[in-house]
Structures
1.
Amino acid sequence: MNYAFPITILFVSFIAFMMLRIPIAFCLLASSILAGVNISPKFLSTVFLRFGDGIQSFNLLAIPFFIFCGDLMGSGGISSKLVEVADVLVGRFRGGLAYANVIDSTFFGGISGSPTADVSSLGSITIPMMEQAGYETDFSVAITVATATQALIIPPSHNMVIYGMAAGGVSTGRLFLAGITPGLLLCASMMVLCWYLTKKRGYPKGPKYSLKQGLEVVRDGLLALMTIVIIILGCSTGIFTVTESAAIACFYAFILCIFVYRTVKIRQLWNIAKNSLRTMSMILSIIAAANAFCYLMSLMKVPEMITDFLLSLTDNKYIIMVLINIMLLIMGCFMDIAPLILIVTPILLPVVTSFGYSPVHFGIIIMMNMAIGSLTPPVGTTLFAGCAVGHIGIEKVTKSLLPFYICMVVVLILVTYIPAISMWLPNLMMGTQA
């Protein structure tokens, strides 16, 4: 059967619905229905069956736990403790608050797994602090949103769980371990950029802490950071599944916020759970709709067509990866992270694996591209959240983000062409995959 017209219907209707600002889950489902009915009226029931099958996966149970854990610790004032830890470590240097912003985002990214949560929680603390210390608002917001994207790369990222499912069951433990070094590399590169900018602009030094004060602050912060240790060690050693690790992390966060820090009251849990449920329902509805969309793409052999097209341009894997990165960066400007992962993974994964790339390595490449995409208009959710918190226009922040874009692209290139950056740690701790 010739699928040229149904393929056109699938993608044109999807783009049209997006331009009408219809929620992404409805865009995916509606375009799937139109394309399915065009193939055959019998496919209407199949589309809805695939919609339901999309969320019948045990690994997806980890996502609600990760979301709730991040929301609970965000509401429990963990963000302020992490800011204090970062300030103890680097605040005394010139431009110390800028360095602290990078480090506390690295810490919080390993707890929340969400750039938006990072900006909303940490940004409300660090942006006013930086403004009072003499930093420009646009720079304060720019560094906050840029560093927040580490939450996509440093585990536990629920988007890695989504990618693992879309890639056909790639180990979440391997993905988590693979994200650590690229995330730290991104952190280090932004620290270097901050050193240059703070030296050039003459930003002030921060206060010094006594040894006793510093140890007390670090002690409280380390309790929070144990969350990421539980998740990573549990997944990588095989002691827990990713879902069990997420559930245990939630229980640990509950004990920490209710009984240790005492920053969350029992009566607040209901509102925190409702916020988590709202986020979870959005993500799972997108996953369900994307499953129907991807089923039709597979049926109509869209991934094979894309593979053949790319290979017809060149057989040089380095050029192919340049084209793929450019494609992902452009698409990241116009689509949210989760649906984009679900759509592009089954299309591009066969291409990269044919050149010997590991699905785990490609997952980190996708996350790096999504991190940059979340900072670019017109659909840069992390950028929008930062501008809302900082009460500043998008155009001013975007201009201040230019050096950070360059920094992130450089790290993306390194991660793309040096597989060892991503793969050495999972291969060390979990063995080399065949």
2.
Amino acid sequence: EVSCLEWPVLLSFLWGMTPRIEQVAGVRLLPTYSYFRTYQRGDICRVHADRPACEHSVSLTLAYADGTAWPLEVADQPVAEAQRQTVRGDEDFGGEAHSGYAMAAGDAVVYRGHDYRHGRTTPNPNRWSAHLFMHWVDRDGPHRGHAFDGKPMLGPVDFRFPG
């Protein structure tokens, strides 16, 4: 797992995707954070709702070692504030209606990560899979204080290119 604070190219990609995700979400957004993660064969992602910094989320599948789609599951209805879990998730949806999205490499699912429980309850069928997760908050919404994951901006970035 690598965060955009550890690998600035992820932050650049997050900023670059912001205008497109604004079109999908229908609101002006501020980036919060992104991270890259690999899962191994047999891994699951426990069912959970994310913290407020994940008001608008994108799960992007980058690659599968064996080319077998591994579905992301998202609840069909938002959860009440009192039912949200951010640290420990559940092994399944507990009878809660949800939909699965079989994602090929290059596919993305856009959802409200803070409002909808999500996870991958079926074990990963691939030797490994690679994923990028990106998150934003509504620029004018109640979670705007989570922009940039609550961290101060480091100042201007000067990308240097050889030649």
3.
Amino acid sequence: PGNPAGQPVIGWPADLAALTLADLRDWYDTWYSPNNAILVVVGDVAAEEVFRQAERQFGGLRARRLPNVAIPRTAVAPGLREMT
């Protein structure tokens, strides 16, 4: 309970159905920024080439100020929990 891992990745269906185009644009403008992203590269690659390509593809993107987010405390699950 209360742990983000217990939430759907893209949200609850009812919340998604209620979104407007303005809501989506606001979310994108707020959170989609290179300083809020991680690039993951897997495989037999040359590091220099990965850095060159990343700079070519993403180097022109500018960081934006991100909102402060309070990290909620994880609720303790009610009831007895056992591990055997």
4.
Amino acid sequence: VAPFDLEDNWRNREVLMLVKAVAELEESVLERNLSVKLFKNSKWLESLRPALLNILRRYAPEAKLFEGNDNALLESFGLLRVPEYILISGSLVVNGVNLSSLQSVGVPATSLRLARLETKAKRVLTIENQTSFEGLAALRPPETLLVFSGGFASPAVISLLRSLSLPLYHWGDIDV
């Protein structure tokens, strides 16, 4: 059964090791870091990525939500290609650091995971398109915290939204 090969037990073992590791992730990890941890090679996971995606697309119930976006599917499991920065605009204090005076700022997702957050915002507006996000951030809507969500909100963005416990609105479009 694809992506397995009856002639290559070593690769089959590595694919299964990777699937198990991804299924058990409790927090986000960079692909290269996981590759070093599992295979002692920072780029080996990349060669197994198509097999991992094949399995996730076939068997992960949430895969349909990320149709056509491999990175979003892997991010939903906590596997990231590059460090994630969440773009934010509005009233937000992170661990005592006030970000409110900036038009917008990219905050490392790892910094937000266990951060103490304070806001005077009365609502959160997630925005799918980065150009729209920056345009609205320049207008500085009152009492509104803007969060760039991209096409699919990552687990880190979802976690941030949950921790804020504010009414949530979304500005997006409908792609086919």
